[in-house]
Amino acid sequence: MGKARSRADGDYKTDNAVVDFGADGDVTLTHDPDDGLILKSKATADDNPVLLTLQTGETDLAANDVIGKIAFQAPDEGTGTDAILVSAAIQARAEGDHSSSSNATSIDFMVGASEVAATKMTLTSAGKLEVAGGVDIEGGAVFNEDSADVDFRVESDNDANAFFVQGSDGKIGMGISTPRNNLDFGVTSNNDHVIALRDNNTSRTILGLSNGYGVRVGSPSDGTSSENMFEVGEINASDGTTYQNTHFAVTYGGDVTISTGDIIFGTSGKGINLGVTSNTDSNTLADYEEGTWTFAVTLEGSGTATVSGSYNTGSYVKVGQVVHCGGDLRLSGVSSPNGEVRISLPFTGINNTKRLFVGNILTVGIDKQSGQDYGGFFVRTAANEAKASVFWQSTSSHFGLQGQNGGLGANDTFLFSVTYLVEE
What we know:
The protein has no helices and 32 strands.
């Protein structure tokens, strides 16, 4: 059937009827049988779209006045009531009084559930999209693809910055609007929990703030004493996910296990407090050392005693203030020895003449002294010196071995050990 055309007003009851508008019929309104109408512009030039303008005759637009509206309705729906109400609409609404310097307008998107269509989404004149319900995005979503310096913020019921991305540098804040780190958590009290890791509703590990400054790590109280509540290990470099090789662990029973490496203090003078619940100097183990030192033999009067290069090294273990040391010392030569014989020690002894210590010594080639009634020789540490004297004992006292009386010579041997205290 052909199309009926007219430029006059009338009742057009012919399918596919066309109404031409304009002197040259450049705009047409065509009947689409059983569906509706088609509005078309015949202009073929570039950037010349078809235009439908809804105009209001109001002369004084105020806030919330509707400028134009398109509504959708099924008034003949047989079930009536809600079914015949306006189901959806799009309207242009003035945001405020229009003036010579403002025509701020919002577009309201209105839908009905069991009601006349009501606003559920609004696009404001500032470009802000306000959605009353949830947003369900089936595909991917990219925010700020043009890399503008704008912030991204998610609010909760009582936190204006529940999630915040800082546009200037991409740093993320949770509970804070000025993140200073790549991920920054803002807390409002000293014992706030920051991160909770769960494998069900009851089992969780908490990372939080302790007393406003330190970090608190907490784990469920239902673990057994041998299970680890905290551990540090490695992630497999190949797949980037597999956990392996625990280096450090704390069990629910309170035991600390170090599987690799050592405990290293960043500065000297630090230690471990043993047997106390506070930092107590007298219970602090602040030093442990193993090593060797080179023997030297001196005479407090005059002369020299030379130590053999093959037997000139002693060993020691130092634990806190306590030093245990000794070795096999042998002489290679002596020249005009006179005065008390002294052997060097690895550390200076404590400066207290009432806290000197005595050690054992076995000698070879040293003459027994006249009046030496009890056993052999022994060594006694000196106060405030890194030396020990060789002593012998009579029935009434003890005396330092004098070099001129000991018959010192090459290959003479001092095999000794002594434990003594040093200053803290």
